[in-house]
Amino acid sequence: MNKMTRTLQRSLGLVLITALTLLPNLALASSHMDAPLITRDPSANTTDVYAFVSSRSGQKYLTVALGVYPHEHPGIGPNKYNFDESVRYEIHVATGADVAAGRPTLTYRFEFKTKYKNQNTVLQSYLGVVNAVDDANQNLTQTYTVTKLNNRSGSQMILGRGIVPPNNQGIATPFYNEGDNGENLARKGVATEAELDRYTKAAIAQLSGGYLAFAGQRDDGFYGDIQSIFDLLQLRNPGKDAQGGFNIHMMALQIPTAEVGGELQVVGVYATTSREVASVATPGAIIRRPQYTQVARQGNPLFNEGLVAIADKDLYSRSTPATDNQLFRKYAENPELAALINAIIGKGAQLAIPTGRTDIAGIFIPDVIKVDLSTDAVRLAGNGANTATNPNDAGFSRLSIFGGDVLKSKIQDPFKNGGNIPGGWPNGRRFGDDVVDIAIIALLSDLRDPNNLKISDPFMGNYDGVTSNDMGYSKVFPYESTPQNGRKNSFPQ
Is residue 17 part of a domain? Predict the structure, then answer.
């Protein structure tokens, strides 16, 4: 093949890549598997967004987290799951009038770089046992930059940089696992920073302005019998956690409340991923900065997955919460899922109200997770209610307000009960919130009149037969469970 032929083939390839990237019907969607096209782009596929009030050393924070890359099977090789250098991962915070408008006031952008210590080997990830993050045996290492963007003023500020710890392969990464032994299961959740495994502890980055950041592999903390829900709503008890045994990649950020305008407010949180658009350079052309197009969006759990029709799922991914009232309110006010519950589970009886659901629209429109920052720090899940080590906080309920888990607001009284509001989702979202059961109870109930709430919970908060994650959570940053061990995990052995 001569030089001219190679040059022509390369140019045609770049043109084809550019054309495919710019086709509007190839924009991708969000959540685990909630829109048709997102399955083609796992590294940009958002899984879950978390947002809640936390505290550390007497300081109050808004803690936010974004998961991507669903269904990571532990322990693959020679290549492994990583963050994508050509994707911008962004967590957005709306304040003041921007919350109701669905506009991001602040954006926190994570961007990644990858390096190898030795490319003359088939050992892509681990050259030996990794004793410390980025030591000589961690062959592939990723670093990242966190940038704060003020969308009102247009200003940008680099808050700092961090490093990604290794994935949990097993023997190559023993310190993730019980007894620092790669033959054992991953460590359970911990209650103190001192108990964190050495990789996670070393990868927590102190940024300017009092921020903390983390980016790396974790267990997938979402739980639910997704198979049975989308198998004609044929629920089973016990159910099977569809995400059990799988890992994700997660970015987490602790934001001092002063950085978002103080604690006497409700903020909105959502996340997006944007992929770099390929461009073709021509001789003499000016080199321009890379352009990005949004390919995924994630706010409240289950909205696009469980309420938005197929015709609009990919449109949701390309749009912003500012358009939700116009484009997607109809799906919240008239949830098809309520009609399906009536037809399949109720066998024609009206268990759920299928129309006029302004209460459901109040949760999902605009699709930002609304967090009341005026409350005390939330109650946190640990390794379970009855575990000897790191139990759930007293009063924690996976069902949030439907399980009696409430917080006291200093700025609102939506239920006319003295300011008691949900302790978890839909007031923020914590690790451990059973969002499937909370959503079903909400659909079965009538929450439209705050003076006359009608709570309906015929199955006592156990609808899909899954009531806990397969791994315990930590009560300290980054909260999400230790990544599953590739050598021994919760998959059937």
Answer: no
User: Residue 15 in 3-state DSSP?
Assistant: helix
Alpha helix (H) residue ranges in 319-434: 324-327, 329-333, 336-340, 358-364
- CA pair distance 215, 195, nearest whole angstrom: 19
Closest by CA position to 400, among listed 431, 372, 371, 438? 438
Helix-, strand-, coil-residue percentages of the chain, each rounded to 5: 25, 25, 50
**Can you read off the two tokens belonging to residue 394?**
């007293």
Q: Are 112 and 147 in contact (CB under 8 A)?
A: no
> C-alpha 148: how far from its chain's center?
19
Q: Which DSSP string corresponds to 25-92?
A: GG----TTT-STTGGG-GGG-EEEEEEEEEEETTEEEEEEEEEEEEEE-TT--SS-----TTEEEEEE
Structural domain includes residue 478: yes
Number of domains in the chain: 1
> Are 214 and 204 in contact, with CB atoms under 8 Å apart?
yes
Summarize pLDDT for 44-97 with one digit per residue, the tens: 999 999 999 999 999 999 999 999 999 999 989 888 999 999 999 999 999 999
Q: Does any domain span residue 270?
A: yes
Domain span at residue 341 reads: 27-280+291-487
pLDDT per residue as tens digits for the range 167-226 = 999 999 999 999 999 999 999 999 999 999 999 999 999 999 999 999 999 999 999 999
Q: Is residue 120 domain-resident?
A: yes
